[in-house]
Amino acid sequence: MDNHQFRAGVKAALPIVLGYIPVGMAFGVLARQAGLTPIEVGLMSLLVYAGASQFLAIEMILKGMAWSPIIFATFFINLRHSLMSSTLSLYFNRNRLRTLGLLSAELTDESFAVAMSNTSKIENRPVYLFGLQITSHVAWITGSVAGALFGGLIDHKSYGIPFALPALFICLLLIQIKKIHHLLIMVIAGISSLFFKWALPGNWYIVLTALLASGIGMAIETKLFPSPSMGEGKGGGGK
Amino acid sequence: MRPETLILILGMALVTFLPRFFPMAFLNRRVLPEKVKKGLEYFPISILSAIVFPMLFSNGGGKIEIQPQYLIAAIPVFLFAWKVKSLWGSVILGMVLYWGLGFVL
Hints:
With 239 residues, chain A is mainly α. Helices cover 72% and strands 0% of the residues of chain A. The longest helix of chain A has 31 residues, at 3-33. The longest helix of chain B is centred in the first third of the chain and has 24 residues, at 3-26.
């Protein structure tokens, strides 16, 4: 293990921890109300580790639904991770299957977005990514078990906590904007996500938006920068 | 532990793991066509936009509906994050603004 990289990954995860602990607590409280024991809550957060689908599962349990439709819904909610997994595959091509298995099991929206904010740190560096992911996961388990055991220690609707992860995502989105046409892609993706969310059930809007907007991004980039080994130099064409 | 809860958890874990695992394990950048690779590089920005915009402009049911407390807190965070690409700064600023707006709105 490369300690330095691991520690860098842990450090990069800390803003996620700030968001995961209160949200995990809220999950634990809700799951208890739905009749899950603290051990079941902990096991779900350990093995499933996907916030949106865990909340949905609790809602469905409260409505008295059986396990099969819940598992079905979980699959479709978490299908979006396949897109993130595809992107990560670009950066890990010299690693063993079991390393990839571990990294992919730990993939979440938040850790993916943080990892993508500096891709030079993750390129074939599984230890860094693992440090980032495992820290987030521990926070999620800790939060949810604490919520199940002790109830909401802190009011998760207070102190601006609901805005911790949104603010993190906003900053991570802006970090992705490195060229002028990325702004255009952001606007296209934003508008189409609103349309798809309105038009379709579940969270297909994330998958469809990603496919549409990245298709457009790819087309624009191929038109604007035909050579694959384009430098970062400013100036050149344009006005 | 009740068996049906265990089945539920294991089933959810399996169907969550598979889509996370397969692309990373079996897509190989050396084989991927250049166009696909370029497209994949746009996934982060597209996914993040698809997470952020509905948070600000849509209610839980998918209807277009401005979320004032989120939107008003988001604008300064956007500007701050644009200038200073600081995760901690954005998170703290966003939380303070959102908290403060809770007293006003």
